[in-house]
Amino acid sequence: MSSVSFTLNDGTIVPGIGFGTGTALFGKDCAGQVKQAIDAGFVHLDGAQAYNNEESLSEGIKLSGKPRSELFIVTKLRPGALAEHVKPAFDASLKKLGVDFVDLFLVHCPIAMKAGDPQPDLPEVWHEVEAIHAQGLAKSIGVSNFRIPHLQAILPTAKVIPSVNQLEIHPYVWKTVEPIVKFGVENGNITAASYGGLTPIVRAAGGPLDPVLATVAERLTKEFGKPVSTGQVLSKWVLQKKIILVTTSSKEERLREYLQTAELPDLTEAEIAEIDTVGAKLHKRVFMKHVFDDTDPQ
Ligand SMILES: NC(=O)C1=CN([C@@H]2O[C@H](COP(=O)(O)OP(=O)(O)OC[C@H]3O[C@@H](n4cnc5c(N)ncnc54)[C@H](OP(=O)(O)O)[C@@H]3O)[C@@H](O)[C@H]2O)C=CC1
Ligand SMILES: O=CCc1c[nH]c2ccccc12
Question: What PROSITE patterns would the database entry show (predicted)?
Protein backbone atom coordinates (compact mmCIF):
# COMPACT_ATOMS: atom_id res chain seq x y z
CA MET A 1 0.00 0.00 0.00
CA SER A 2 1.13 3.55 -0.72
CA SER A 3 2.56 4.91 2.50
CA VAL A 4 1.94 8.49 1.48
CA SER A 5 -1.41 10.08 2.26
CA PHE A 6 -3.03 13.49 2.33
CA THR A 7 -5.63 14.92 4.67
CA LEU A 8 -8.43 16.74 2.85
CA ASN A 9 -10.17 19.89 4.08
CA ASP A 10 -13.03 17.74 5.42
CA GLY A 11 -10.64 15.62 7.50
CA THR A 12 -10.66 12.63 5.13
CA ILE A 13 -7.37 10.81 4.64
CA VAL A 14 -6.65 9.96 1.00
CA PRO A 15 -4.06 7.40 -0.10
CA GLY A 16 -1.62 9.63 -2.00
CA ILE A 17 -1.10 7.46 -5.09
CA GLY A 18 -4.16 6.43 -7.08
CA PHE A 19 -4.70 3.94 -9.91
CA GLY A 20 -6.61 5.42 -12.87
CA THR A 21 -9.11 3.65 -15.11
CA GLY A 22 -9.35 6.38 -17.77
CA THR A 23 -6.84 7.05 -20.59
CA ALA A 24 -5.45 3.62 -21.56
CA LEU A 25 -8.45 1.84 -20.01
CA PHE A 26 -11.12 4.23 -21.33
CA GLY A 27 -14.11 2.24 -22.59
CA LYS A 28 -12.35 -1.04 -21.87
CA ASP A 29 -12.97 -3.86 -19.43
CA CYS A 30 -10.55 -2.90 -16.67
CA ALA A 31 -11.35 -5.73 -14.20
CA GLY A 32 -8.07 -7.60 -14.64
CA GLN A 33 -5.97 -4.47 -14.38
CA VAL A 34 -7.88 -3.20 -11.35
CA LYS A 35 -7.30 -6.54 -9.62
CA GLN A 36 -3.61 -6.38 -10.59
CA ALA A 37 -3.34 -2.84 -9.19
CA ILE A 38 -5.04 -3.80 -5.91
CA ASP A 39 -2.84 -6.90 -5.63
CA ALA A 40 0.20 -4.64 -6.11
CA GLY A 41 -0.95 -2.46 -3.22
CA PHE A 42 -3.17 0.27 -4.72
CA VAL A 43 -6.24 1.11 -2.64
CA HIS A 44 -7.13 4.45 -4.28
CA LEU A 45 -9.05 3.75 -7.51
CA ASP A 46 -9.87 6.62 -9.86
CA GLY A 47 -12.92 6.05 -12.05
CA ALA A 48 -15.38 8.20 -13.96
CA GLN A 49 -18.77 7.91 -15.59
CA ALA A 50 -17.15 9.01 -18.85
CA TYR A 51 -14.70 6.12 -18.82
CA ASN A 52 -17.63 3.80 -19.45
CA ASN A 53 -16.10 0.99 -17.40
CA GLU A 54 -17.44 1.40 -13.86
CA GLU A 55 -18.97 -2.14 -13.94
CA SER A 56 -15.61 -3.70 -14.69
CA LEU A 57 -13.96 -1.52 -12.05
CA SER A 58 -16.42 -3.10 -9.63
CA GLU A 59 -15.64 -6.56 -11.02
CA GLY A 60 -11.92 -5.96 -10.48
CA ILE A 61 -12.56 -5.00 -6.87
CA LYS A 62 -14.58 -8.19 -6.33
CA LEU A 63 -11.85 -10.31 -7.96
CA SER A 64 -9.25 -8.78 -5.63
CA GLY A 65 -11.18 -9.79 -2.52
CA LYS A 66 -10.15 -6.50 -0.90
CA PRO A 67 -12.74 -5.31 1.64
CA ARG A 68 -14.64 -2.16 0.68
CA SER A 69 -13.53 -0.52 3.91
CA GLU A 70 -9.88 -0.63 2.80
CA LEU A 71 -10.51 1.02 -0.57
CA PHE A 72 -10.81 4.65 -1.62
CA ILE A 73 -13.14 4.72 -4.62
CA VAL A 74 -13.49 7.82 -6.80
CA THR A 75 -15.91 8.52 -9.60
CA LYS A 76 -16.70 11.65 -11.59
CA LEU A 77 -19.81 13.26 -13.01
CA ARG A 78 -19.87 12.88 -16.79
CA PRO A 79 -18.73 16.04 -18.58
CA GLY A 80 -21.63 18.09 -19.90
CA ALA A 81 -24.10 16.86 -17.26
CA LEU A 82 -26.57 19.55 -16.19
CA ALA A 83 -27.80 20.01 -12.62
CA GLU A 84 -30.86 17.81 -13.16
CA HIS A 85 -28.62 14.98 -14.39
CA VAL A 86 -26.39 14.87 -11.32
CA LYS A 87 -28.41 12.65 -8.98
CA PRO A 88 -29.63 10.11 -11.59
CA ALA A 89 -26.11 9.86 -13.01
CA PHE A 90 -24.63 9.43 -9.53
CA ASP A 91 -27.18 6.73 -8.62
CA ALA A 92 -26.30 4.88 -11.83
CA SER A 93 -22.62 5.03 -10.83
CA LEU A 94 -23.32 3.56 -7.39
CA LYS A 95 -25.22 0.73 -9.07
CA LYS A 96 -22.50 0.04 -11.64
CA LEU A 97 -19.79 0.21 -8.99
CA GLY A 98 -21.79 -2.07 -6.69
CA VAL A 99 -21.24 0.15 -3.66
CA ASP A 100 -23.50 2.14 -1.38
CA PHE A 101 -21.18 5.14 -1.22
CA VAL A 102 -18.10 6.48 -2.99
CA ASP A 103 -15.18 8.02 -1.14
CA LEU A 104 -14.85 10.95 -3.51
CA PHE A 105 -17.21 12.30 -6.19
CA LEU A 106 -15.76 14.86 -8.60
CA VAL A 107 -17.34 17.15 -11.17
CA HIS A 108 -15.17 15.98 -14.08
CA CYS A 109 -15.22 19.11 -16.22
CA PRO A 110 -16.61 22.63 -15.68
CA ILE A 111 -17.87 23.11 -19.24
CA ALA A 112 -19.51 21.04 -21.97
CA MET A 113 -17.13 18.96 -24.07
CA LYS A 114 -18.34 20.43 -27.38
CA ALA A 115 -19.09 24.00 -28.37
CA GLY A 116 -22.82 24.38 -28.88
CA ASP A 117 -23.80 21.84 -26.21
CA PRO A 118 -25.73 23.27 -23.24
CA GLN A 119 -23.39 24.63 -20.58
CA PRO A 120 -23.84 23.41 -17.00
CA ASP A 121 -24.76 26.02 -14.40
CA LEU A 122 -21.84 25.39 -12.03
CA PRO A 123 -23.42 26.65 -8.76
CA GLU A 124 -26.53 24.54 -9.44
CA VAL A 125 -24.47 21.48 -10.32
CA TRP A 126 -22.43 21.98 -7.15
CA HIS A 127 -25.59 22.22 -4.99
CA GLU A 128 -26.72 18.84 -6.37
CA VAL A 129 -23.30 17.38 -5.55
CA GLU A 130 -23.57 18.85 -2.03
CA ALA A 131 -26.95 17.11 -1.61
CA ILE A 132 -25.31 13.77 -2.42
CA HIS A 133 -22.61 14.54 0.16
CA ALA A 134 -25.24 15.50 2.74
CA GLN A 135 -26.88 12.08 2.29
CA GLY A 136 -23.54 10.39 2.99
CA LEU A 137 -23.45 8.84 -0.48
CA ALA A 138 -20.15 10.56 -1.31
CA LYS A 139 -17.86 10.95 1.70
CA SER A 140 -15.92 13.77 0.04
CA ILE A 141 -16.74 15.93 -2.97
CA GLY A 142 -14.59 17.88 -5.35
CA VAL A 143 -13.95 19.04 -8.88
CA SER A 144 -11.65 18.36 -11.79
CA ASN A 145 -10.25 20.62 -14.51
CA PHE A 146 -11.59 23.71 -12.76
CA ARG A 147 -9.68 26.90 -13.51
CA ILE A 148 -9.81 29.85 -11.09
CA PRO A 149 -12.98 31.41 -12.62
CA HIS A 150 -14.80 28.07 -12.30
CA LEU A 151 -13.84 27.85 -8.61
CA GLN A 152 -14.89 31.48 -8.16
CA ALA A 153 -18.26 30.62 -9.70
CA ILE A 154 -19.10 28.03 -7.04
CA LEU A 155 -17.33 29.20 -3.89
CA PRO A 156 -19.61 32.14 -2.94
CA THR A 157 -22.70 29.89 -2.66
CA ALA A 158 -20.98 26.65 -1.71
CA LYS A 159 -22.00 25.06 1.59
CA VAL A 160 -19.16 22.57 1.17
CA ILE A 161 -15.85 23.70 -0.26
CA PRO A 162 -14.50 21.21 -2.81
CA SER A 163 -11.92 18.93 -1.19
CA VAL A 164 -10.00 18.18 -4.37
CA ASN A 165 -9.32 19.71 -7.78
CA GLN A 166 -7.95 17.02 -10.12
CA LEU A 167 -5.86 18.62 -12.86
CA GLU A 168 -3.26 17.78 -15.48
CA ILE A 169 -0.10 18.47 -13.50
CA HIS A 170 3.49 17.89 -14.62
CA PRO A 171 6.45 20.22 -15.20
CA TYR A 172 5.41 21.04 -18.80
CA VAL A 173 2.16 22.66 -17.60
CA TRP A 174 3.25 23.75 -14.11
CA LYS A 175 3.67 27.43 -15.07
CA THR A 176 -0.01 27.64 -16.07
CA VAL A 177 -1.43 25.32 -13.43
CA GLU A 178 0.49 26.50 -10.35
CA PRO A 179 -1.77 29.57 -9.92
CA ILE A 180 -4.82 27.29 -9.86
CA VAL A 181 -3.24 25.00 -7.26
CA LYS A 182 -2.22 28.02 -5.16
CA PHE A 183 -5.70 29.57 -5.43
CA GLY A 184 -7.23 26.31 -4.21
CA VAL A 185 -4.92 26.08 -1.22
CA GLU A 186 -5.59 29.71 -0.28
CA ASN A 187 -9.36 29.48 -0.76
CA GLY A 188 -10.44 26.63 1.46
CA ASN A 189 -7.43 24.31 1.43
CA ILE A 190 -8.49 22.51 -1.75
CA THR A 191 -6.01 19.68 -2.41
CA ALA A 192 -4.77 19.32 -5.97
CA ALA A 193 -4.55 15.91 -7.61
CA SER A 194 -2.35 15.28 -10.64
CA TYR A 195 -3.19 13.25 -13.71
CA GLY A 196 -0.96 12.94 -16.77
CA GLY A 197 2.03 13.33 -14.46
CA LEU A 198 4.33 11.17 -16.59
CA THR A 199 3.79 13.28 -19.70
CA PRO A 200 7.40 14.54 -19.89
CA ILE A 201 8.68 10.98 -20.42
CA VAL A 202 5.63 9.33 -22.00
CA ARG A 203 4.16 11.99 -24.29
CA ALA A 204 6.92 14.58 -24.64
CA ALA A 205 10.14 12.56 -24.56
CA GLY A 206 13.05 14.48 -26.06
CA GLY A 207 12.05 17.68 -24.28
CA PRO A 208 14.33 19.96 -22.26
CA LEU A 209 13.73 18.07 -19.00
CA ASP A 210 15.22 14.78 -20.19
CA PRO A 211 18.80 15.44 -18.99
CA VAL A 212 17.60 17.01 -15.71
CA LEU A 213 15.41 14.01 -14.88
CA ALA A 214 18.24 11.62 -15.80
CA THR A 215 20.69 13.42 -13.50
CA VAL A 216 18.27 13.43 -10.57
CA ALA A 217 17.41 9.74 -11.15
CA GLU A 218 21.12 8.93 -11.12
CA ARG A 219 21.64 10.79 -7.83
CA LEU A 220 18.64 9.09 -6.21
CA THR A 221 19.77 5.68 -7.49
CA LYS A 222 23.08 6.11 -5.69
CA GLU A 223 21.43 7.32 -2.49
CA PHE A 224 18.64 4.71 -2.52
CA GLY A 225 20.92 1.84 -3.50
CA LYS A 226 18.39 0.54 -6.07
CA PRO A 227 17.48 1.80 -9.56
CA VAL A 228 15.30 4.93 -9.52
CA SER A 229 13.57 5.79 -12.82
CA THR A 230 12.88 9.19 -14.37
CA GLY A 231 9.16 8.38 -13.92
CA GLN A 232 9.73 8.08 -10.20
CA VAL A 233 11.49 11.45 -10.20
CA LEU A 234 8.39 13.00 -11.80
CA SER A 235 6.11 11.23 -9.33
CA LYS A 236 8.22 12.41 -6.41
CA TRP A 237 8.10 15.96 -7.81
CA VAL A 238 4.27 15.79 -7.68
CA LEU A 239 4.08 14.30 -4.17
CA GLN A 240 6.58 16.79 -2.71
CA LYS A 241 4.33 19.60 -3.90
CA LYS A 242 1.65 18.04 -1.64
CA ILE A 243 -0.32 16.94 -4.68
CA ILE A 244 -2.13 13.59 -4.94
CA LEU A 245 -0.74 11.41 -7.77
CA VAL A 246 -3.18 9.62 -10.07
CA THR A 247 -1.40 7.39 -12.55
CA THR A 248 -1.90 4.02 -14.23
CA SER A 249 -0.05 1.09 -15.73
CA SER A 250 -0.82 -2.22 -17.36
CA LYS A 251 2.42 -3.64 -15.94
CA GLU A 252 2.74 -5.15 -12.48
CA GLU A 253 6.37 -4.12 -12.12
CA ARG A 254 5.60 -0.50 -12.93
CA LEU A 255 2.68 -0.45 -10.49
CA ARG A 256 5.06 -1.53 -7.72
CA GLU A 257 7.56 1.09 -8.87
CA TYR A 258 4.88 3.82 -8.63
CA LEU A 259 4.01 2.80 -5.06
CA GLN A 260 7.67 2.64 -4.09
CA THR A 261 8.03 6.33 -5.02
CA ALA A 262 6.81 7.31 -1.58
CA GLU A 263 9.79 5.56 0.02
CA LEU A 264 12.46 7.28 -2.09
CA PRO A 265 14.72 9.98 -0.70
CA ASP A 266 13.35 13.47 -1.29
CA LEU A 267 14.33 15.64 -4.22
CA THR A 268 16.28 18.63 -2.96
CA GLU A 269 14.76 22.10 -3.16
CA ALA A 270 17.36 22.94 -5.83
CA GLU A 271 16.34 19.90 -7.89
CA ILE A 272 12.66 20.83 -7.65
CA ALA A 273 13.46 24.42 -8.64
CA GLU A 274 15.48 23.23 -11.62
CA ILE A 275 12.67 20.92 -12.77
CA ASP A 276 10.22 23.85 -12.47
CA THR A 277 12.51 26.23 -14.39
CA VAL A 278 13.47 23.84 -17.17
CA GLY A 279 9.91 22.51 -17.36
CA ALA A 280 8.68 26.05 -18.02
CA LYS A 281 10.69 26.09 -21.29
CA LEU A 282 8.20 23.75 -22.96
CA HIS A 283 4.41 23.93 -22.80
CA LYS A 284 2.72 20.58 -23.42
CA ARG A 285 -0.89 20.03 -22.43
CA VAL A 286 -2.46 16.70 -23.39
CA PHE A 287 -5.97 16.66 -21.87
CA MET A 288 -9.00 18.95 -21.64
CA LYS A 289 -7.56 21.50 -24.06
CA HIS A 290 -11.01 23.00 -24.60
CA VAL A 291 -11.02 24.11 -20.95
CA PHE A 292 -7.47 25.40 -20.73
CA ASP A 293 -6.53 26.66 -24.23
CA ASP A 294 -7.13 30.33 -23.52
CA THR A 295 -4.74 30.41 -20.55
CA ASP A 296 -1.95 28.52 -22.24
CA PRO A 297 0.95 30.37 -23.84
CA GLN A 298 0.77 28.25 -27.02
N1 LIG B 1 -9.78 14.26 -14.56
C2 LIG B 1 -9.38 14.16 -15.80
O3 LIG B 1 -9.82 14.91 -16.68
C4 LIG B 1 -8.38 13.11 -16.17
C5 LIG B 1 -8.10 12.08 -15.29
N6 LIG B 1 -7.19 11.13 -15.61
C7 LIG B 1 -6.99 10.02 -14.65
O8 LIG B 1 -5.62 9.83 -14.42
C9 LIG B 1 -5.25 8.49 -14.73
C10 LIG B 1 -3.82 8.45 -15.16
O11 LIG B 1 -3.67 9.23 -16.32
P12 LIG B 1 -2.45 9.05 -17.30
O13 LIG B 1 -2.32 10.30 -18.07
O14 LIG B 1 -2.61 7.80 -18.09
O15 LIG B 1 -1.22 8.86 -16.29
P16 LIG B 1 0.34 8.99 -16.47
O17 LIG B 1 0.77 10.29 -17.07
O18 LIG B 1 0.87 8.61 -15.16
O19 LIG B 1 0.68 7.90 -17.57
C20 LIG B 1 0.48 6.54 -17.35
C21 LIG B 1 0.81 5.83 -18.64
O22 LIG B 1 2.21 5.96 -18.87
C23 LIG B 1 2.74 4.74 -19.31
N24 LIG B 1 4.12 4.68 -18.82
C25 LIG B 1 4.54 4.78 -17.55
N26 LIG B 1 5.88 4.76 -17.47
C27 LIG B 1 6.32 4.65 -18.75
C28 LIG B 1 7.61 4.57 -19.33
N29 LIG B 1 8.71 4.61 -18.60
N30 LIG B 1 7.69 4.48 -20.67
C31 LIG B 1 6.57 4.45 -21.43
N32 LIG B 1 5.31 4.50 -20.93
C33 LIG B 1 5.19 4.60 -19.61
C34 LIG B 1 1.86 3.67 -18.74
O35 LIG B 1 1.83 2.63 -19.67
P36 LIG B 1 2.10 1.09 -19.30
O37 LIG B 1 0.76 0.46 -19.21
O38 LIG B 1 2.91 0.61 -20.44
O39 LIG B 1 2.85 1.05 -18.00
C40 LIG B 1 0.50 4.36 -18.62
O41 LIG B 1 -0.32 4.08 -19.73
C42 LIG B 1 -6.28 8.06 -15.75
O43 LIG B 1 -6.38 6.67 -15.88
C44 LIG B 1 -7.53 8.69 -15.17
O45 LIG B 1 -8.02 7.91 -14.12
C46 LIG B 1 -6.50 11.16 -16.78
C47 LIG B 1 -6.73 12.16 -17.69
C48 LIG B 1 -7.72 13.19 -17.47
O1 LIG C 1 -10.48 11.88 -17.67
C2 LIG C 1 -9.76 12.08 -18.63
C3 LIG C 1 -9.54 11.24 -19.76
C4 LIG C 1 -10.73 10.82 -20.48
C5 LIG C 1 -10.78 9.65 -21.14
N6 LIG C 1 -11.98 9.55 -21.72
C7 LIG C 1 -12.73 10.64 -21.45
C8 LIG C 1 -14.01 10.97 -21.86
C9 LIG C 1 -14.55 12.17 -21.43
C10 LIG C 1 -13.79 13.00 -20.61
C11 LIG C 1 -12.50 12.66 -20.24
C12 LIG C 1 -11.97 11.48 -20.66
Answer: ALDOKETO_REDUCTASE_2
pLDDT by 10s per residue, the chain, length 298: 458 999 999 999 999 999 999 999 999 999 999 999 999 999 999 999 999 999 999 999 999 999 999 999 999 999 999 999 999 999 999 999 999 999 999 999 999 999 899 999 999 999 999 999 999 999 999 999 999 999 999 999 999 999 999 999 999 999 999 999 999 999 999 999 999 999 999 999 999 999 999 999 999 999 999 999 999 999 999 999 999 999 999 999 999 999 999 999 999 999 999 999 999 999 999 999 999 975 655 4
Ligand having the closest approach to the CA of 195: 1
ipTM for the predicted complex comes to 0.99
Q: Domains in the chain, ordered, with CATH?
A: 5-197+242-250 (3.20.20.100)
d(CA 82, CA 262): 38
Q: Ligand 2 centre from 221 Cα, in Å?
A: 35
Three-state DSSP string of 251-290:
CHHHHHHHHHHHHCCCCCHHHHHHHHHHHCCCCCCCCCHH
Ligand 2 neighbour 52 (Cβ under 6 A): no
